[in-house]
Write a structure and sequence with these properties.
The chain contains 11 helices and 2 strands. The protein has 205 residues and is mainly alpha-helical. It has a two-stranded antiparallel sheet. Bound molecules: fe (ii) ion (FE2). Fe (ii) ion binds next to loops.
């Protein structure tokens, strides 16, 4: 068994997550979740096919990277990254589970204070789980593509980080570190693809 589902199974699980969400989430937010997850999957697959990575794996990991958002943290008291990790591990798809954690924490040794909207126990578990992982091309790819989709628009990571900063009132230093990480990831895939991924994905700089 591969550590991630095939496309058909991934789409079926993703559709199930949408029906679960539709019970408690506003219609507009559901539309944004659909746009975001499909967008991350498609852009990851597009970049993957340009640099000899497995585009099917990239698509599946992108589509399921926010799987844990099917449940509301307010109701369950559990963060989306931990719901996604635990549920996908139970299904036996450890790579898809891992992405739910790694895309949330571009910095492995993150500061708890920077993520205070999440339950502390989840942050402690996540930190422990990612501590010894060496982030691979798929972790980096989904971290990067996650920053290209804002609401129902495809945007540069600079624009998305600016919006995130405004929305969550993040500290300047944290945003600077996230920007540096995203810049490194983008430069990595620009070099790997031999082109500017913004041009590949038709993203305005
Ligand atoms: Fe996401």
């Amino acid at each position: 068994m591969t550590p991630y589902p095939d496309i058909k199974t991934a789409v079926a699980i993703w559709q199930k997550s949408i029906s679960e969400m539709s019970v408690w989430i506003a219609e507009q937010h559901l539309r944004e979740y659909i746009f975001h997850t499909v967008g991350v999957g498609e852009s990851a697959a597009k970049i993957a096919s340009c640099c000899n990575l497995d585009y099917e794996k990239a698509y599946v990991l992108g589509l399921l990277h926010d799987y844990g958002k099917k449940q509301s943290q307010k109701q369950t008291g559990k963060s989306h990254f931990m719901v996604g990790y635990d549920d996908l591990m139970l299904l036996g798809w450890s790579d898809a589970a891992r992405i739910n954690l790694t895309h949330s924490f571009p910095e492995q040794n993150f500061d708890y204070k920077d993520y205070s909207s999440y339950p502390f126990d989840d942050l402690r578990r996540a930190k422990e789980l990612i501590r010894d992982i060496v982030y691979d091309d798929y972790d980096k790819l989904i971290q990067l593509c996650d920053l290209f989709f804002e609401g129902t628009a495809i945007v540069s990571f600079q624009k998305r980080l600016k919006n995130i900063c405004y929305r969550y009132n993040l500290k300047k230093e944290q945003i600077a570190r996230l920007e540096k990480k995203a810049s490194e990831n983008k430069a990595y895939f620009d070099a790997k693809c031999g082109c500017n991924v913004y041009e590949l994905l038709h993203i305005e700089k």
